[in-house]
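Standup, Tuesday
Yesterday: got the pipeline producing structure tokens again.
Today: sanity-check two examples.
Blockers: none.

Example 1:
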Amino acid sequence: MQPFKSQKPTVSLTMIVKDEEVYLHDCLASVRDIVDEIVIVDTGSTDKTVEIAQRFGARIFHCAWHDDFAAARNECLKHATGDWIFQIDADERLPQESKTEIRKWLRNRSVTCVSVIIDSPKAEQKKGHISRAHRLFRNLPGVKYTGRIHEQISPSVVALGGREGQSAIHLVHLGYNKSEAEMRAKSERNYRLLKKQVEEEPENAYARFTFAQNLILNRKDEAAQAHLRRALELGGLPKDIICSIHNNLAELHMRKGAYEQAVSSAERALAITKSQTTAYLLLHEIYGYLKDIPNQIRCLESAIAVVEKSHRHGPTVSLEAYVDPAMLYLNLGRRYTDTEDSEAARNNYRKAFQISPDSPAVLTAFIDALIQAGDSDEACTVLATAPRTPANLEKLAWFYIRRQEFGRAVSTYEALLEHAPQNTDILKRLAALHQKLGHSHRAIDCLAKARAS
């Protein structure tokens, strides 16, 4: 391996930009203390992008855009002087806790490139996906990007006989929090470039795989399946990509009702790595169509086992969706309810509630299970600690009445009345409760308010 240029390895941040004034400042602020220089290639900004970059002391170069991400990124590499390249996009952020991890890898003389975890949340809560990409690599002759879109440095690293390292470095990607129109425009641009790349390089397995991802998103299933199969035939893909191809094929088979083929494809993905949730959750859905509850339970329990192991080291497939553990336990509880194993159902609902007490679906399932088991004490305790929404207060008041705790029922209905001051049903119930407690004047007052409403 070629030695570092100095005793302390240096890092060049490289980035291509166009009209990124919304994102750029926070991006550069998150990385400026970890790099020795910032190299930016601008492909035609008309906003304040260049001005913002200048504030951070960036070296700025300009080039025309030719529908080729690799060409633009290689222009960055021409101007970078560091021992290492750290590539980041304007809509990404480097968390503080990942900086120690970067410094550790900079001292590693045995690897050529390092993969990092890309965390891509969506605007909807608990939605998004995680993936891996080579963003930290040695600045060596022959290391370059290839690919008109979804460009990579790994083919050049492999050609040089270089070694890869898998890191716990995280980048947070905000690119999926854009408007629907922006996302549609991005998808259309990607389709055009991916199609062009496949036409130019029909033997490029990775290009066919990435084109298939776009086709799946746009529900062009037959074309996607053909490209995925051709990618497998061409070969030369890393295991994480092959695993994702089998998961993609499982989803496509499931969409058209070919459930046995879908099971077979998902099992092929699991044969490559069991340390994933995607295949297990696909199988859970497929077995649902096949009315195979025992296998659904098995798949959910396997997915939970994966989630319970730390995700610190990122996915072992090329792309994994976010998984909400509370929803895994909720669905597992539902499957046990289907088998009439009420104790197992209740235990899983309890775990779901402990993780996500604000979820109405989780709370309802848990309370219903407790009621069925005749455990009104725990049901009351759960409802008393749950968010004080009208629905939860209504249920809690019902429990207090059932337990003849009329004073608590009154307090609960009074809290419920704050949400709906003119609700005649609540006022009448309060009147009846006050009467039971011997508070005749309060009962009369509630009835008067009910008549006036």
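Example 2:
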Amino acid sequence: MEKGYSQEKIIILHLKDNVGIIKKDVNKGEKIVIEEEKFKNTIEVREKIPYRFKIALKDIHVGDEIIKSGELIGRAKEEIKKGEMVHVHNIEGLRGRGDLKGKE
């Protein structure tokens, strides 16, 4: 799984990731079960999440790094519970920002 994991509902691009990418719309209450050799997890979806959006694989606290593809993409602006959507409303993006050169 170091390079990734994929199943019907989710793609996890790297073992370090704390977010996955939804492969088809999921609804509140659905369960996503991951049974990879190095990564086992059951995620109960906490809200409707559309195709191609990110979902938290674990609880993420204010200030925690958001990791996708094994790379830092942002920081949490608020508490994000496992199973919630991770998007611009709850993270501060850090990629491509000239004001953060050398700080990220």
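Quick observation on example 2: The chain has no helices and ten strands. The two ends are 26 Å apart (CA to CA).
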